[in-house]
Design a protein that fits this description.
heterodimer; A: mainly alpha; two-stranded antiparallel sheet; 9 helices; B: mainly alpha; F1FO ATP Synthase; rod-shaped
Chain lengths: 321, 95
């Protein structure tokens, strides 16, 4: 038995037709060629920039890398309500989310296509997220909130990795057209703060509803603790309850803002700040790597974290220790 | 210490305001310590987290799916700490 198993792979290998082997070799060499070409272009660009501008440069004192993340008022809608790029991103997110989900819901079939399969897997994920952390009827009640938060944060984050012409502080084409920028609504602390405030109110409301106000305050600390320890534990537990609001906000905000600043910084802002063009070319691969890391992993992960923490907080507020 | 004082004195002689000089130095240090310390702490945390995941999966491969969801939760919570440090450094540097 063992000899058979050991022999099969080698036989299979030997049975590769000459055609397949040629294909495999050709595929290898194409990848190699592209890789070598990319390295050659990289080195060539580096040499050209170094020859054209040299190593030295003057510092740019006026350039401010956080300026594009400030919100310029584009126009006023009613009274104190203003329209700026943050509002534009939120509206875009809402439109895209509602559009995709309504389209999938309307064209539901018994034999799902790719889009429907993805949305159904997504639905299953959110359902297991709520059911694992809450009782049955609570899960039914809070499923829409958790699902909406997940989809909304995911789409706002992903929208933040598409360059759109929203940077109105620096115009191009003779100052007629705003320049392109990677901006996300979550890079402004107000958006995550409002989302987290909603979650904080929701889980405290559920806790008070389940235990009564006094009962909820009592349920914050484990039962059966001596009185001396209670004096120590109560401030800590109440603080941790309030800090949940802060940590939910800052996690989302800091991830998005620092991610975007790092992409900008590696993608050329550092070269502009120091006035050395070759530096921009040097850090560009790092910028692309951070962009991919942020867009592929962090965008989805932050949405997942926010949703699952919401479910956990609501679940833990209703259970007593 | 005396070297720092010498540097500040040298800067003052060339016409740079010592207060601005000190502010700039402090900002640079804040950004360096925030980003560097944040990266060190989060790096240690993420390393230990993935080490534990490998160990746990090797012991109980049938728990793989449950471990994976906890793993990504822990990864995001740990990795956020790096960004806290970095954003703190950026705030000190630019504001």
């Amino acid at each position: 038995m063992t000899t058979l198993q050991a022999e099969t792979p080698t036989e299979n290998k030997n049975e590769l037709s000459p055609q397949q082997e040629a294909n495999a070799k050709a595929g290898m060499s194409v990848v190699k060629k592209v890789g070598l070409l990319a390295i050659a272009v990289y080195i060539l660009g580096f040499v050209v920039l170094l020859a054209a501008y040299g190593l030295s440069g003057t510092k740019n004192e006026e350039f401010n890398i956080v300026q594009p993340f400030h919100l310029d008022t584009w126009f006023t809608i009613v009274g104190p309500i203003e329209f700026n790029k943050g509002v534009l991103y939120l509206l875009l997110t809402t439109a895209i989310t509602i559009g995709i989900l309504l389209y999938v819901a309307k064209s539901m079939t018994m034999r799902p296509n790719r889009m429907q399969t993805a949305v159904e897997a997504f639905y299953d994920l959110i359902r297991s997220m709520t059911r694992d952390n809450m009782d049955e009827d609570l899960a039914k009640k809070w499923f829409p909130l958790v699902g909406t938060l997940f989809v909304f944060i995911l789409v706002t984050n992903l929208l933040g990795y598409i360059p759109l012409p929203v940077n109105s502080s620096e115009k191009i084409f003779n100052g007629n057209f705003p320049s392109f920028q990677l901006y996300a609504a979550d890079t402004n602390v107000a958006v995550p703060l409002v989302l987290a405030l909603g979650v904080w109110l929701a889980f405290n409301y559920e806790g008070v509803k389940a235990h009564g106000f006094g009962g909820y305050i009592k349920s914050l600390v484990p039962s059966g603790v001596s009185k001396g320890m209670l004096v120590l534990l109560y401030p800590l537990e109440i603080l941790s309850n309030i800090l949940r609001l802060l940590s939910l906000t800052v996690r989302l905000w800091a991830n998005l803002l620092a991610g975007h600043l790092l992409i900008d910084f590696m993608g050329g802002n550092m070269a502009v700040l120091l006035g050395r063009p070759f530096l921009g070319w040097l850090t560009l691969p790092l910028g692309i790597a951070i962009f991919l890391f942020e867009a592929v992993l962090i965008a989805g992960l932050q949405a997942f974290i926010f949703a699952i923490l919401t479910a956990m907080y609501i679940g833990s507020a209703t259970h007593s220790h | 210490m005396s070297q720092i004082l010498q540097a500040i004195n040298a800067a003052a002689e060339t016409g740079v305001d010592p207060t601005t000089y000190g502010q700039k130095a402090g900002r640079a240090i804040a950004l360096g310590v925030g980003a560097g310390g944040g990266a060190a702490g989060a790096g240690a945390g993420i390393g230990s987290l993935f080490g534990s995941v490998v160990e746990a999966t090797a012991r109980q491969p049938e728990m793989r799916n449950e471990i994976a969801s906890t793993q990504w939760l822990g990864f995001a919570l740990t990795e956020a700490c790096f960004f806290y440090g970095l954003v703190g450094g950026f705030i000190a540097f630019f504001l």
